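Late entry, written up from scratch paper. The run itself happened at the end of the previous shift, but nothing got recorded in the book at the time, so transcribing now.
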Amino acid sequence: MNARRAAGPWHLAARTARMNPSVIREILKLTDRPGIISLAGGLPSPETFPAEAMRVAADRVLRESPREALQYAASEGYTPLREWVATEMAGQGLRVDASQVLITTGSQQGLDLVARALVDAGSRVVVESPTYLGALQAFSAYEPEFTPIACDGEGPLPEALGRDGAGARFVYVLPNFQNPSGRSIGAVRRAEIARCAEAIGLPIVEDNPYGELWFDAPPAAPIAARWPEGTIYLGSFSKVLAPGLRLGYAIAPPAVYAELLQGKQAADLHTPGFNQRLVHEVIRDGFLKEHVPTIRARYKAQRDAMQAALLAHLPTAGPRACRWSVPGGGMFFWVELPAGIDAEALLPRAVERGVAFVPGTPFFAGAARANTMRLSYVTVPPEAIERGVRALAAALETMP
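Output as recorded:
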């Protein structure tokens, strides 16, 4: 394959043709304009960041173990933090040893390491429809062929997985309050997915950044608890503490752990040791049990505000009806616009009226549904959510 040319003497790798900028990051540039209400970004609310707890913990880490915290560290991660993760997962029904936990530089790195270890050019990867855009970006650099799996309101259909998943390298799923759709996979469906995947020898990559952000009821036990030998589980501290720390983890079966570790050593040697010690200092005595419920309460109020605004301003009957489901947690509403309405064409009209959102097309690996969009509610106060949805409805009325 011929190398691609860039300006000057640079010859680009062929794979860069599949590496595209984040649509969401590009849309977020629009929100820098004064007066724009952003329902676009999937950012945690900065009001939830435990700055004081971090300050106290940082002081203690630098006072008690400054040399260790500022030195190079083990690629696997800080042992007490890995042990904390293993203990926490046991409480959720997934029994693993700390030796199976790899601390990553955000769960996004976990996605990259999975693809680096498991994907060859042209190999198949099964994904939900729609699915997380960041995963598509991470996987695309390794040149897979995506196989979108048929889904309903509860996620992948097991019969479709059995039909289309055989021979793929893995299936990627987000079972809890999925980004972008907000849907969750129930206990029975999780068991069916695990049973079907095991029967056809299809590994599972289970991504769970939002599971602690439940409003109405906690989610079912991880899919990994049903087939631990065939599942890589990814988690994150970004949504319950602060994304700027870039701290996540991968839990992998021994059969593939070494390959993930070697990929990490090649990528960045290790996740910053200071950040790991800082987070462990904050959470080791049960801080999250008090802190996370405050996040849930805040986000639930904003979820309710968006649901009320959608009902008040978007049509729900007739030829111009919009459809959505109320998420039981997480950060997103997924809205289906009337047939024939292109959300990408709607976006500039909405921005003119002071509101931004993310069109749904980039979240599809296969045939996209152009009449979909993702709305995020967690960084916008309830009164602004109402104004933003009202402006969105006004923009929608101008569409032919």
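The first strand starts at residue 4 and ends at 5.
(Scratch paper discarded after transcription.)
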